[in-house]
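sorry for the late reply, my laptop died twice this morning and i had to redo everyting from scratch. anyway the thing you sent over, i finally got around to it. pasting the sequence first so we're on the same page, its 388 residues, then the predicted structure underneath. double check i copied it right bc i was rushing
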Amino acid sequence: MSADDRPISIGAFLAPYHPAMNDDPTMTIRRDLELVRFLDDLGYDEAWIGEHHSAGAEIIGSPEIFIAAAAEMTKRIRLGTGVISLPYHNPWMVAERVLQLDHQTRGRTMFGFGPGILPSDADILSVPTAESRDRMVESLEIILRLLDGETVTAEGAWYKLHNAHCQLRPFTQPRPQIMVASAFTPSGAQIAGRLNLGLLCMAATGLNGFSVLDVNWGAACEAAERAGHTMDRSSLRVVGPMHLAETKEKAQRDVEYGGQAYLDYFAVTAPRKPEPGAPKGLIESLEGRGATIGTPDDAIETLERLWDKTGGFGTFLLTDHDWVDTEAKRKSYELFARYVRPWFTRANKGRQESLESYRSQNEMFFGRVVAAADDVIKKYEDRRAPAN
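ok and here's the structure:
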């Protein structure tokens, strides 16, 4: 792939993170739906919706229900489950919902699967944390067989299927796009490679996630080769949080609105060991979690680092958050769409080359215009001149 050939897609990843517990949840979910419609209008390619059931902030329990509503409000944006936590569901029921949404959205739905991220969700359902990834793989393999039209009889720790089959065949042939979530360990990447699926790198811009992006992609490619497949970089999605404004100073002021609530939420759900030295400020703490806070130029620099680290990817997903108010959030998404993607993909390369070509020949072109004007004037004067 050449330096000028970087046809990435862009999208948003809505966990969603709404840690402000004083905000009306009904209005909050509605704003999420309106955001997806706004992204569709801006030309974003994808929006991914998470599944969570506890801890208060990530308040969408069924990405499928959300997607069904969002699909009716939008025209072209593709909608993904990011992710369905497979150990929490009967695999046949998941396959049935996948197929219904595939038809209902006429192929605009993608499906990300994972083991579940919140230990509290797993505890409520009595899913042993140590078994969650194995259960995900077990369920995923059954779902793929069902989507491919097989009849399945199988029994696991949390399900029992007898001659299970799906009434519908996929709208998207041969099946909808399927992704496996990956964070730090290579296990998700190996599953994606073995089963010939896409890879959704959830923590791509954080220090730990970024450091293993190339390692995990390599693990996916090795597993794919062993299984007789080839990984396609267009199916690699990398996820990271950003907030953009016209100036870096304004972006930093904007995140004072809700950045601390976001950090407080993760201090509870994903605590870290105290770091030596003086306590970090808000901006430094957010950047420590992989955030880019600044201008479109800062976002371009982040994408360039990700591109160099991975060797190329298909889609960059902006982690949605409530660090800023609604107006500032929408402005950030607009700046990314207007200035970051076209610069990164070289979308204006042809326009720039056209202008440079004109500039290099400007003297010649100007001379032709002047000569043509002089000729018109001369012909006019000749017609007005009296005959001898």
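The CA atoms of residues 152 and 164 lie 5 Å apart.
thats about all i looked at so far, will dig more tmrw
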